[in-house]
Design goal:
Length: about 300
Amino acid sequence: MRYLLLMLTLAGFLTSSAQVDSLKEEKQRIDSLFIKEVQDKRKPDKVLHAEPLFIDLIRDLGARKGEKEWNIGLGLTDNNRYDLYTTLVEYEFAPMNRWGFEVELPFSFYYPINGTNRDSIPGTRLNSLKLATQYSFFVSEKLKTSLAIGYIHEFMMPEFRVFRKSRLINGHTHNPFFIAAKRWGNNFHTLLYTGPQIETSNATKYSHTNWQVNSNFHYMIPGTRNFVGIEFNKDFRKKDFDMVIRPQMRVGIADNLLVGIVAGIPVKRENQRFSSFIRLIYEPGQKHHRQPLLVTAP
């Protein structure tokens, strides 16, 4: 009897171990599903990286010719004297391998709160016509690393309330930048996006420079393009430093449609308080193989 019980216990243990091993193997296979889709699909080389949702990239690192993407963004920022609603329409495309281009129209809408006089706050406007390019000069699937440089030029627009009395273009913003991204294993992603932002005014010839350093950490859910992560958006000016922490998540709702949700938490609440942002991402013509996330071992 004891021998029979021992054999049954041993059989149960071996069955349980086999199930765990089977689940582990299946998880590892699913982990690499989208990595293989991106990296082994075709040449040139491309590494799967998690792209931040608030300060996003011009195009995927290591972009391949023909890739394109539409973005629509909606945001709300709570300030001391007014609420700021933002929206943007953005089109990204890759006319050649590793080159990305972007056209964006960002709008800002200001609403006074706590009895604030509307004339004392900024006015609603189309912020700028934003044109940008990005080139991935180093892509290594073996090292799971990509490096890129780029440039953003914004033609700054006046407020709608003074549009007829002002110049069509009242200033420029110049923003060269550098990007370094690495994937650690299959699921953990880090990315650094940094560069100076130089603003000039056509009317006063005034200019000032601030330095942006945006560091990112993401965890991509196995077998999907969904992720959770955090952005640290840091802004350095003369004798001033601001940082906003942005926890975020991205969820795929169709083969070529994703939604990103971002919260903004300022470290120093000088003027800006909490904020939120939603980004809708549509990739026309893109099909991604989807696989169930949860599996059951036989």
